[in-house]
Amino acid sequence: MHAERSVVQNIYKGKQEDFKRFDKTSKNNDDEEDFIEEENETMKNSKKEGDEEEEREGEENTNEDEEEAESPTERQASSESESSSGTMSTLWEFQCSQSDGQNVNCMAWNRENKDILAVGYGNIDFVGAKQGLILCWTLKNPTAPERSIKIDHAGVSSLDYSEQNPSLLAVGFNDGAVKIFDVRQVGNVPVLETNKSHTGMVWDLQWVDQGKDLGERLHSVGVDGRINSWSIKKGLECHEIMRLKRGGRGADSGGMCIDFDPSNSDKYLVGTEDGLICKCSCSYTENSQETYIGHTGPVYRVRWNPIDPNVFISCSADWTVRVWNQEKFSPTLTIESFATKKQMRSSSVTDVAWSRHDMSVFASVSVTGTVEVWDLSYSSLKARHFKTKAGRKLSTVLFAEDSPAVLVGDDKGSVEVIKCG
Asked: Using 50, 70 and 90 to split pLDDT, how confident is the model at 338?
């Protein structure tokens, strides 16, 4: 086994070094002003770029006959390799026989060892799905997982590593269960579990350190509209801190995603199946404090900017990514999902993630197989990089912790590691 790992490390050594190479001096965030406030100027410049692009496309249309002469394979290869600026190149893929054919639903980096990635699998789109899988991958061996946890009762819908106890992995399932595994232990048995949870899909969960009195707590949101807070001091104990309502009242509204403010552990955002984003407080459990209106479909992901505490981003089944300032209740910027003007294929945006090192950079993925990396200081009309995986539905995206790379999960059980630039 050790000899096999040594061979694998030699094969991937160059790519792993490429993955680790990260120039944090490429952009000085300390000198940047709030890019949201400068968006009008950016959009003006981007519009000029767009007009120039349309002129170029007019000239390109004269060559359409020549393009039609290309074989479908040539056109597909060209589409997959081109990007609007710079390059996107595949370093490797995390995939094995266990994950083949399963949908990648969630990914999380270990909080202590940034080389360890947990990935949750399962065909949760099927009602009553009874099988799931958790694989823990390491950069030392992209061809075989370090740990495998097989689930025989449900698909894995969400997961997150604890920061205070880095070996503990919290997992949510499509049957409403929440369990905690110790990834140091071999086997499929959780160290903590409970039947008192959600009545349906646990769409998202997150560990949050809430100070000396409360310590680190786990929070989950489900299709039943419940937002639960979990303590592990005496087993796995849960209490409901919020119940989402349609329009703030009436029938329950399903929760799709949750994210806590990195600068205030009492405050969090929740995206709903109704297209609303609610800002809530752990100290006030009756109703949400604010409601942000803009999406017209379920909000699949909402994320605070890790550098600017006033900014957050969301994506939705309504084909859009929206950037918000928490002091305004409508989006500051709306981006429709399509890679090129030739394509013009709008599609559900299934996930979005901020770069941890650049406040203006984010990545998004869609069901049509396109991953886009945007730099709002470069353009708000045109993705800086994009790549399409033909015949794949992309489900989740995550930036590497210390590398200019994004990780993209799809519906075939693959997690592709892609270098940008």
From this structure: low
